[in-house]
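Subject: design request, 692 residues
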């Protein structure tokens, strides 16, 4: 039985012009089981191609390679990897070491790929190094810092570490001076005492000095063959099984790749970090803003103040416009909606008599921006007393009012005085006509002229807020119940009050302001206001300024969130692209390393893992930092938003977002690793490592 036999091997290449090129032509060689066999020939004669046939880096067009009488061209992919890892050792002219790894690591790498424990592998590598003349202080030096002779010796030791039966050396002295060439050839000669060493060379002098047999190749044919006798002491088994997988060499390579490309990887991490953090914050914003705005709007002192009126629309003839007509609801209509109005105090609208925009003066100066607004009462549960920021709640009297924050700032800034304790005058006039059955028209004048004192300041929403004073509706109601329409009363000869006139007013009478006033009885029902408003039957309609403001805010936030989400998508696609490009360039940059690892018996999955771990590390660091930093950023952003707008917890990142982002990141990681590998050309070790 022979160790290695080439039977009728031919190799043809199809050229671009359609012609065939025969590189190897029916070559048959029976190799001895030990000794140094030299393959001699000019450049281009097919020597490397021949070696590639033996190392299975290339397939013959015809013929077979027999290793221990087994046709190894028929092995499956996995067994080919094992054959390369265990039965042969390859030495290249250009060394093909992992230049950024240490001498020890390079030598023990085939053992690690085989699945050996690191400690054992290191021990074996050191033992091997001790058998040759190699400076001990270079053991942990990176290979890129070695001389050519040293590198070639490291490459030879690497090919030896797995104790293979065959060593293939392609022009091992091609790049060395004669002194180093002799050292290397002596080493190969020494090795060949126990195994088959096939050396390719075009240096005749060196070959004749060291080789036991010489095969001369010319134009793909054997020109001359001098062969020594076969020794039959062979172990008749191809080493197959790998030891249980140890993948620390993969992680070790990933780690050193990561550190070698640290600048690029920091950019990748930063971009992923920004993408992930932005996602968390945007999800947090869309999650938190709605409830934050609701919470905040409930805390309006006049949140439950609304009006109810009948709204009917009429098409204007000959026009596309519709006219919305407002009128005071009839008692029948109110009765129909009674259940839904239970939560409210239903009162006549008094704004015709006591305008929202009366003349308000401090001494001689007008406070034109200040409006005058009703809330139901200062003392019952329609008011949330917790909203008082400064001063005190007013007594239930017409002469005491509250000011909101905007109003407070307006007075303080424009009138340079302390608003609390400030005495103002409010003035409003109204002219009312009563049409008697007799056709007579009686005119009465309502003159509202009051001195009021601001006693407290209340919190309110700064969004769309205007400077406001708040008075108690109940106190004015009492006042209107006591104040008579003087002319009408004397004409009719009974006491007719303004309040009664408001109550009795007809639906189209301007004094009714075409509506009733509604006050939510209990401020704790604020969260239900929206619902209550929508329950009222048509054609009645409740108009709530607070809800209008809140809805405007929701629209604004929805639009903003939508924009941000779009931005987020772009950011995430960009991040994946950046990661993909980075891992693609790493892959291209390391193509030679991958080819070397293939020659040493590593499989595709293991090589893929090297890039995957590097990217995984990038992803994990970004993920952890965004997990830690985004809640802090949210806190900071919330603080800033609150101090500007008064909204609390606008960004609230839900736990689910954190949970979802983990698999998403891993997906980005896998995608950005796998896709570039998928789209790039398959690595051909033969081409990557071909000796120029
Ligand atoms: P050597 O190692 O003896 O210098 P090689 O075995 O590398 O020669 O190459 C033998 C011949 O095969 C060369 O002429 C080379 O140009 C040719 N050759 C190698 N690979 C290919 C290929 N893929 N397509 C066409 N010709 C090739
Ligand atoms: Mg060659």
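Subject: RE: design request

Done. Sequence follows.
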């Amino acid at each position: 039985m022979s160790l290695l036999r080439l039977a009728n091997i031919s190799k043809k290449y199809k050229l671009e012009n359609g012609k065939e090129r025969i590189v190897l032509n029916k070559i048959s060689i029976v190799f001895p089981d030990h000794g140094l066999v030299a393959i001699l020939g000019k450049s281009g004669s097919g020597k490397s191609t021949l070696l590639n046939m033996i190392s299975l880096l290339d397939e013959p067009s015809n013929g077979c390679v027999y290793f221990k009488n087994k046709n190894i061209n028929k092995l499956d992919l996995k067994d080919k990897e094992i054959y390369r890892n265990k039965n042969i050792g390859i030495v290249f002219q250009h060394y093909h070491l992992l230049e950024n790894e240490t001498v020890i690591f390079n030598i023990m790498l085939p053992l690690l790929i085989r699945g050996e424990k690191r400690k054992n592998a290191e021990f074996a590598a050191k033992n091997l190094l001790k058998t040759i003349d190699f400076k001990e202080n270079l053991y942990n030096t990176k290979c890129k810092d070695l001389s050519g002779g040293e590198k070639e010796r490291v490459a030879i030791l690497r090919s030896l570490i797995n104790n293979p039966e065959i060593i293939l050396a392609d022009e091992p002295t091609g790049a060395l001076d004669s002194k180093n060439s002799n050292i290397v050839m002596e080493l190969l000669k020494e090795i060949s005492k126990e195994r088959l060493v096939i050396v390719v060379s075009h240096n005749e002098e060196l070959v004749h000095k060291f080789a036991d047999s010489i095969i001369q190749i010319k134009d793909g044919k054997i020109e001359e063959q001098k062969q020594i006798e076969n020794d039959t002491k062979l172990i008749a088994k191809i080493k197959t099984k790998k030891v249980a997988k140890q993948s620390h060499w993969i992680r070790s390579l990933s780690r050193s790749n990561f550190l070698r490309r640290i600048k690029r990887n920091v950019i990748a991490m930063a971009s992923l970090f920004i993408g992930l953090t932005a996602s968390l914050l945007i999800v947090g914003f869309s999650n938190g803003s709605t409830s934050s705005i609701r919470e905040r709007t409930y805390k309006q002192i006049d949140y439950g103040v609304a009006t109810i009126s009948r709204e009917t629309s009429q098409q204007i003839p000959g026009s596309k416009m519709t006219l919305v007509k407002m009128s005071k609801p009839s008692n029948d209509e109110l009765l129909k909606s009674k259940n839904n109005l239970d939560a409210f105090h239903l009162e006549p609208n008094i704004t015709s008599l006591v305008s929202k925009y009366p003349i308000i003066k401090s001494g001689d100066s007008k406070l034109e921006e200040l409006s005058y607004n009703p809330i139901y009462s200062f003392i019952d549960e329609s008011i949330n007393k917790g909203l008082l920021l400064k001063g005190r709640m007013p007594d239930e009297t017409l002469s005491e009012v509250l000011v909101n924050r905007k109003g407070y700032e307006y007075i303080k800034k424009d009138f340079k005085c302390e608003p609390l304790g400030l005495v103002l005058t409010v003035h409003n006039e109204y002219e009312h006509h009563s049409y008697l059955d007799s056709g007579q028209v009686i005119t009465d004048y309502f003159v509202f002229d009051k001195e009021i004192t601001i006693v407290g300041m209340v919190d309110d929403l700064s969004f769309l807020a205007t400077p406001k004073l708040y008075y108690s509706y109940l106190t004015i109601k009492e006042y209107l119940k006591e104040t008579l329409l003087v002319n009408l009363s004397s004409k009719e000869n009974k006491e007719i009050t303004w309040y009664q006139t408001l109550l009795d007013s007809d639906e189209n009478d301007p004094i009714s302001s075409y509506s009733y006033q509604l006050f939510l009885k209990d401020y704790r029902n604020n969260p239900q206001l929206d619902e209550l408003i929508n329950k009222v039957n048509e054609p009645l309609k409740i108009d709530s300024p607070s809800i209008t403001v809140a809805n405007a805010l929701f629209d604004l936030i929805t639009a903003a969130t939508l924009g941000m989400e779009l931005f987020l998508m772009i950011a995430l696609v960009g991040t994946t692209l950046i990661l993909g490009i980075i891992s693609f360039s790493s892959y291209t940059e390391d193509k030679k390393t991958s080819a070397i690892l293939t020659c040493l018996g590593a499989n595709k999955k293991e090589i893929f893992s090297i890039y995957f771990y590097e990217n995984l590390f990038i992803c994990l660091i970004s993920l952890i930092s965004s997990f830690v930093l985004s809640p802090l950023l949210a806190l900071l952003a919330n603080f800033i938003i609150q101090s500007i707008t008064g909204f609390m917890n606008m960004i609230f990142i839900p736990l689910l977002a954190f949970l979802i982002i983990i698999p998403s990141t891993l997906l980005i990681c896998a995608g950005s690793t796998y896709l570039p590998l998928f789209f790039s050309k398959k690595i051909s070790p033969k081409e990557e490592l071909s000796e120029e």
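The chain is about 45% helix and 20% strand.
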